[in-house]
């Protein structure tokens, strides 16, 4: 599940991110992945099972006291480990494949070392995404593929 959180008070943007993280710590809710952040907004992923816990609703209620919160269910994080030397090529291939297959990517992110490329996709599309990427990078790589030409 993705939580998109936006600051309601732009004059207090310096306090925004620390305050959000303090609320998560207070309620002992772990964040699986920070997808994007700025001084006035943050999108993060939490385990969907946490939404059924009462303390998670308390967390959301507390966040709503100083932010806007959109809960985007039905999403999954898909991560791909890449060769840092081929990172740009691999990343473009991944998104070309998914785009050609008409699979929607809601957010993308990468690790600082450029080894891990991640994306948020519709939960129902995960099996298709995995099959497509596995086929392109492991089954077809030794043969011709327009996406894997160097």
Automatic annotation (TrEMBL):
Residues 91-137 form the Aspartokinase ACT domain. InterPro entries: ACT-like_dom_sf, ACT_Aspartokinase. SUPFAM superfamilies: ACT-like (SSF55021). GO terms for cellular component: cytosol. Coiled coil: none annotated. The keyword Kinase applies. GO terms for molecular function: aspartate kinase activity; ATP binding. GO terms for biological process: homoserine biosynthetic process; lysine biosynthetic process via diaminopimelate. Keywords: ATP-binding, Kinase, Nucleotide-binding, Transferase. This is aspartate kinase. It comes from Fibrocapsa japonica. The lineage of its organism: Eukaryota, Sar, Stramenopiles, Ochrophyta, Raphidophyceae.
């Amino acid at each position: 599940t993705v939580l998109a959180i936006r600051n309601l008070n732009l004059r207090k943007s310096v306090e925004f991110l620390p305050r959000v993280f303090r609320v998560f710590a207070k309620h002992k809710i772990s964040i699986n992945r920070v997808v994007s952040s700025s001084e006035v907004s943050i999108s993060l992923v939490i385990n969907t099972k946490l939404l059924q816990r009462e303390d998670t609703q308390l967390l959301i209620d507390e966040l709503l006291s100083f932010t806007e919160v959109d809960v985007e269910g039905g999403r999954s994080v898909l991560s791909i480990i890449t060769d840092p030397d081929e990172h740009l090529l691999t990343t473009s291939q991944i998104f070309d494949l998914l785009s050609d297959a008409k699979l929607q990517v809601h957010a993308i992110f990468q690790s600082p070392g450029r080894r891990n490329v991640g994306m948020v996709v519709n939960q129902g599309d995960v099996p298709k995404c995995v099959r497509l990427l596995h086929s392109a990078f492991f089954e077809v790589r030794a043969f011709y593929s327009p996406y894997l030409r160097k």
